[in-house]
Every structure is written in structure tokens, then in C-alpha cells.
Write a structure and sequence with these properties.
Rossmann fold; 5-stranded parallel beta sheet; binds [cytidine-5'-phosphate] glycerylphosphoric acid ester
């Protein structure tokens, strides 16, 4: 009986970009099942993170990514241990901008931090979009 390895990660995934895709592809290759907790709009307010795209669209895009098997809402900082138990998670993984921040989860499962993709972020995308609109004098 081959034990299925379940990987869990969380994120906002606003303005889905290549950094998000490369992370999810690497996570999918780490195991047999990838579960992604997408931050709800309410939780992003708690995180102090402004998003352009609403939760249902961010979740639909992540759900459509090959290699993602299940999307769950991320409502709180505290839900991770319960999610790890509920879904029999073998490894929790994040990009290394979070390195060390979730080591307390080693009590429940393996904790992995993967290198971020350089030179891309939702913030940089928004800046590039602003410059583009300005250059092409498109009034929103
Ligand atoms: N990421 C990446 N490379 C980038 C940008 C993001 O690898 N250039 C990774 C991040 O490290 C994270 C994931 O993509 O693992 C999602 O990034 P965000 O949407 O910015 O997620 P964040 O707001 O950090 O939320 O409880 C955890 C939080 O919900 C994480």
C-alpha cells in the first residue's frame, strides 16, 4: 500500500503570477496531493494585506492550477494545526519569505521553505500596471 504524501500551503494569490505558479508546481512535485489554503478577503484584512481580486476569483484560479487537488479557505492564523490534522498532512510548505515563521508546526508535520521566485510580486505587478496605464494614458 503506497502511502499518499499530502502537502499543505497557504497564501493570498492576488493577481496570480509566475511566482505563485512556480511555487505550486514545486509543491505538487513534492507529494501526491496538494492542498492550498487561500486567504479570504476578511483574513487579508486581518493580515493588513490589500487585494485587488476577490476571494472567490483567487480561489477559482488556484483550483484550476494543474497539481492543486483541493482549495480550502484560510480564515485565521490559528487554523493550520487543525487543517494539518483534518487532512492528514505530511508536509507544510511556504516560500522562504516565511522562513522560520512556521517552525512551531514541526510538532505536527514536516515544515519546508522553498526559495521564492525573484523579481515578481503582486506589489511589483501593481506598480508595473500603474506605469503602463500612465504611459498609455488610459484613464481607469
Ligand atoms: N511566492 C513565491 N515567489 C514570489 C511570490 C510569492 O514563491 N515571487 C510564494 C510565497 O512565498 C507564498 C505563496 O507564493 O508561499 C503565496 O504568496 P502570497 O500570496 O503573497 O501569500 P502571503 O500573503 O504570504 O500569505 O498563512 C500564510 C499566509 O496566508 C501567506
Amino acid at each position: 500500500m503506497i502511502l499518499k504524501k499530502t502537502i499543505l500551503t497557504y497564501g493570498t494569490f492576488d493577481m496570480f503570477h509566475i511566482g505563485h505558479l512556480r511555487l505550486l508546481e514545486r509543491l505538487s512535485a513534492l507529494g501526491d496531493r496538494l492542498i492550498v489554503g487561500v486567504s479570504t478577503d476578511e483574513f487579508n484584512a486581518i493580515k493588513g494585506k490589500k487585494t485587488l481580486i476577490p476571494y472567490d476569483q483567487r480561489a477559482a484560479i488556484v483550483r484550476a492550477i494543474k497539481g492543486v487537488d483541493l482549495v480550502i479557505p484560510e480564515n485565521t492564523w490559528e487554523q493550520k494545526p487543525q487543517d494539518i490534522k483534518n487532512y492528514h498532512v505530511d508536509a507544510f510548505a511556504m516560500g522562504d519569505d516565511w522562513a522560520g515563521k512556521f517552525d512551531f508546526l514541526k510538532e505536527f508535520c514536516e515544515v519546508i521553505y522553498l526559495p521564492r521566485t525573484e523579481d515578481i510580486s503582486s506589489t511589483e505587478l501593481k506598480k508595473a500596471l500603474d506605469a503602463f496605464l500612465l504611459e498609455n494614458s488610459i484613464e481607469l
